[in-house]
From TrEMBL:
Residues 172-469 form the CDC20/Fizzy WD40 domain. The gene is cdc20. Keywords: Repeat, WD repeat. One of its GO terms (molecular function) is ubiquitin ligase activator activity. GO terms for cellular component: anaphase-promoting complex. One of its GO terms (biological process) is anaphase-promoting complex-dependent catabolic process. It comes from Gouania willdenowi. This is CDC20/Fizzy WD40 domain-containing protein. The lineage of its organism: Eukaryota, Metazoa, Chordata, Craniata, Vertebrata.
Amino acid sequence: MAQFGFENDIHSILKLDMPITNAPMARWQRKASSSAMSSLSPMKASNASQNSSKTPSKTPGKGKKVTPSKMGGDRYIPYRNSKQMDIASFLLAKENESGDAKTPGASESQKALSVQLNGYNIEDAKILHLGGKPLNAPEGYQNNLKVLYSQATTPASVKKNRFISSTPDRILDAPDLRNDFYLNLLDWSSRNFLAVALHDSVYLWDASRGDIILLMKMAHEEDYICSLSWTKEGNYLAVGTSDCKVQLWDVENQKRLRSMASHTARVSSLSWNDHVLSSGSRSGHIHHHDVRMADHHITTLNAHSQEVCGLTWSPDGKYLASGGNDNLVCVWPRVQDGSISNDSQTVRCWSEHQGAVKALAWCPWQANILASGGGTSDRHIRIWNVNSGSCISSLDTQSQISSLVFAPNYKELVSAHGYAHNNVVIWKYPSFSKVAELNGHEDRVLSLTMSPDCTTVASVAGDETIRLWKSFELDPLKKKAKDKFIKSTSGVIHQSIR
């Protein structure tokens, strides 16, 4: 009996009727809980429980598209504190209000309430704003962009829109003007007096006041004036005549100082170099006159075989340029003080022109540059380097060239033309791009001269008119009121030189 009792005790111990509280969850319990959490229907849940013992044929998760998590996206949401959100809500609610509900009293009360609650007017509030004070730039810092765009531009970088009138500033009638290509009948003094030769008389026009003065008249009616030239100071005028003489006149006192005879033909060109007056005649000779001496004729230059119609000294007084009807351009050295000679050698002599060379001009800003222009058979402007003797450039103008003058204000070259254009042309130097054409003369232009301030060029033509072209003003927008007038054909001022 004792043996049976012991076996009963052993069986009772081995029985698992009581739950084990600390034991891990059984496998069937884990599967049951996972099935309960899934969203399967009861039918599918039963199927799943039936197939739970089978090993899956595919690796879990393989081949399935994984939806990316919405956490950590690339959209930036700015930070707004509660105070800003309240203001934004108020503004949005205010926009939705009807216009009738807004009365002056209500708006004032809202403004007062906003100032009291928020510390500022709600109308001036912004939904988003940067807080904190802006940082000051360190000492010595300079904004490059501000420097680049705010500084005043230099005069060289300013491109001026220059206006050149197509009508002359003034027209002077010049009756009885000799229409002779080889004569030089116009010159403008440094004292602003314009001298013009009308057949046998010389008239002066005061450009400052508009007065006209008859300076001299030839004794014999058959004689005529051939050339004019002012001294550098503008107080004396040299007059070359058809009776082979050179007269010297004191303009201020309107008195002839002396008459110098040395040529054997008419004196068609004149040019001053201090106290030395050079004259060229139809004989082809060039004479130097020292006006301080009783025996004025000091040197004779022989190189031209025909009339010397062009004659001009360089601005520095180092060279004398001469042009003749023999198509030659010659450059002569300066006359030595006190020297008397009947022969002199040329520094340069060029024969490239195919027509008479009357037009000669020295460049004011390049002392060694000479411009020359040929007649009807040539029609070319040529630029010479006296030092090297080379022709720098050449331009075919398609028209007879009677005169040349440099305009230093804009570094341009002005040319006067006869057949077939009968006009004045302004060229950019040294590119020779055409700046403007000044038309108006009805006959060939015979001569040009520049005003002392280099703003106006005067042209005289065979139509017996002198036209003043104010084409070189440095600042045309700032003219004085008295100098302003309408520039039109009907408004051009006509005045007789007599």
